[in-house]
Amino acid sequence: MVHKVDLVIIGVSAGLTVGVLIATLVFFGIWWYKRHKRHQLAPLTHKRSVDTSIILNKSFNNNVAVKLPTYPVKTSPILYNKASTSGLVKYSYKDIQYATNNFTTVLGKGSFGPVYKAVMPTGEIVAVKALASDSLQGEKEFQTEVSLLGRLHHRNLVNLVGYCVDKRQRMLIYEYMRNGSLASFLYNEEKLTLNWDKRLQIALDISHGIQYLHEGAVPPVIHRDLKSANILLDHFMRAKARFQISSILILL
């Protein structure tokens, strides 16, 4: 017959064994998770490390269109382009004037001003968004914000590829999206009707872009103005989310 003391010893031994096993599993689980997370964040931190003490301001939040002065258009190639400290290409006003054929290639007008189609000296087609010239934001502050936006790169985001700050003129240069906005397909009967497979693909594309902003960007970014008008389609009908300086929130 097993004595009560023996039963107690067996019970304590079994409990200790199970406890040690659970603690070991928890330890290795935490170690694996931290190691996996570190490998994911290391390259992003190296490429996109920013000064997290900087917060985007909202001084661009107005509806005043930009009235751009016109000058005689040069017929010679653009030679003024140079690399900026943000890693983006900085263009002069005359560069953009030449690329937009003296600002005659209007694609549309947004809340921040007109948008132009431009052909750069490399042959690349881009979209130039001219910002309101009466903004109170200083040049240094504008370039800081451009630097932050220039660090956000993903295949499902409309990427910033350059900018112009010349006297009172400030422009953001984005990759060109040939098929326009998702809204133009949803609310324009003259355009091609999107089948459900294409709609699902667009939804997946945008979810990947937003996931990158939330989990891949350093620091994380919240898109506060996600709507069909801010979802653009390229020539393959793949979707990318566009964002403006005042439509995102940096999480510190």
Helix-strand blueprint:
Layout: H1 4-48, E1 82-83, E2 89-91, H2 93-99, E3 106-110, E4 113-119, E5 125-130, H3 139-150, E6 160-166, E7 169-175, H4 182-186, H5 196-216, E8 221-223, E9 231-233, E10 239-241, E11 248-250
Parallel strand pairs: 2-6
Antiparallel strand pairs: 1-2, 3-4, 4-5, 5-7, 6-7, 8-11, 9-10
Summarize the structure.
The protein is built from 5 helices and 11 strands; from the N terminus they run αββαβββαββααββββ. One of its GO terms (molecular function) is protein serine/threonine kinase activity.
List keywords for this structure.
252 residues, alpha+beta, Transferase(Phosphotransferase), domain 1, 7-stranded mixed β-sheet, two-stranded antiparallel sheet, 5 helices, 11 strands
Describe the structure.
The chain has a seven-stranded mixed beta sheet with strand order 1-2-6-7-5-4-3. It has helices at residues 4-48, 93-99, 139-150, 182-186, 196-216; strands spanning 82-83, 89-91, 106-110, 113-119, 125-130, 160-166, 169-175, 221-223, 231-233, 239-241, 248-250. It starts with a helix and ends with a strand. Mean pLDDT is 76; it is low at 41-83. With 252 residues, it is an alpha+beta fold. Residues 101-252 form the Protein kinase domain. The chain crosses the membrane at residues 7-33.
